[in-house]
Amino acid sequence: MTQATDWNARIAALPGANILQTSQWAQLKRITGWEAIYRTWESPDGKLEAAALILLRDLRLAGGLVRLRVMYVPRGPLLDWGNENLRKRVLDDLQHLAAEKKAIFIKLDADVEIASGVPGEADERENLVGASTVTELRQRGWLFSQEQIQFRNTVLIDLRAAEEELLARMKQKTRYNIRLAAKKGVVVRKGGVEDLPGLYRMYAETSLRDGFVIRDESYYRALWEIFLQAGMLTPLIAEVEGEAVAALMLFHFAGKAWYIHGMSREAHREKMPNYLLQWEAMRRAKAAGCQEYDLWGAPDEFHESDGMWGVFRFKEGLGGRVSRTLGAWDYPAKAVIYPLYTRVLPRLLDVMRRRGKEKTRQQAGLG
């Protein structure tokens, strides 16, 4: 166990260090009812070898009569997954912790790559460490989760190259649209806390237009303010003649940047503001010392029928590579109750999504 105050400094050098494993993420999740557990694993000589921010929450159903405890390691644990002895030690401890805390299950979705490239294309490569990790999880009784919290797949951009090389890796149409946006008067500026109310309204408008569900305004305001205060978030806003038309939230930690929230309006879409936004995000992340930019999400199935296909085509044009990770896996510490939970959960989530969509419409002033 370690203190939250020095947590980020300790985990920053670990493989796979992720924004969702920081103490700021724990601070955010406490607001929504999660308890944070900080766990570390050290070598015999005291060197930090692995770490995990573990979230624990009690769910109350049937008017509070039924209490179900769940545990989640978002984008963790952090370790060298190719070290089989260390991997075994960490997984043993997580399973024991779930039993000790009387949780129904513990979920993990570590950033472990099982393959890169689009399936079936020439650049597809299997990752042997990812494959062996999946094999071990199955042998231990972990189950591929029906509840995938984060995107399994993403697009990663290597920022170590010069700006000219980054542009050269992009598709020709992407480069053209970046130049077009600048030519048409799109300007990108850094945002601050005073911009957050307007950015939430734009995000809500985007979610309703594009058909995805978001949380209420208080959640995003808390999230953005926590990371802004920590110096780990840069809001970027694209404007045309002083009017905000698109924006993104650029998170950064441990030499990596993430594009987690993007938003836009119908106004001036023909001026391609999102292209210039992404180029500015890459330039700013590179200037801040980040070596990699995670575009946060790609299709589960790389086919036009997948709801992420259109977004993926946009991201693909930016010149990154596809990274396919192992996804979320559950260890059912209470094997009898776990199947009941997985049957009830989809119905509960459907109700929450319907309510959330209506609340978003009201908060955005579109109801």
Automatic annotation (TrEMBL):
GO molecular function, one term: acyltransferase activity, transferring groups other than amino-acyl groups
Signal peptide: none
Entry superkingdom: Bacteria
Pfam families xref list: FemAB (PF02388)
Biological process terms in GO annotation: cell wall organization; peptidoglycan biosynthetic process; regulation of cell shape
Keyword set, alphabetical order: Acyltransferase, Cell shape, Cell wall biogenesis/degradation, Peptidoglycan synthesis, Transferase
InterPro entries: Acyl_CoA_acyltransferase (IPR016181), FEMABX (IPR003447), GNAT_dom (IPR000182), PG_Glycine_Bridge_Synth (IPR050644)
SUPFAM superfamilies, per the entry: Acyl-CoA N-acyltransferases (Nat) (SSF55729)
Positions in coiled-coil regions: none
Domain N-acetyltransferase as annotated: residue spans: 186-343
Membrane spanning residue stretches: none
Family: Belongs to the FemABX family.
Protein name from the UniProt record: N-acetyltransferase domain-containing protein
Lineage: Bacteria, Bacillati, Chloroflexota, Anaerolineae, Anaerolineales
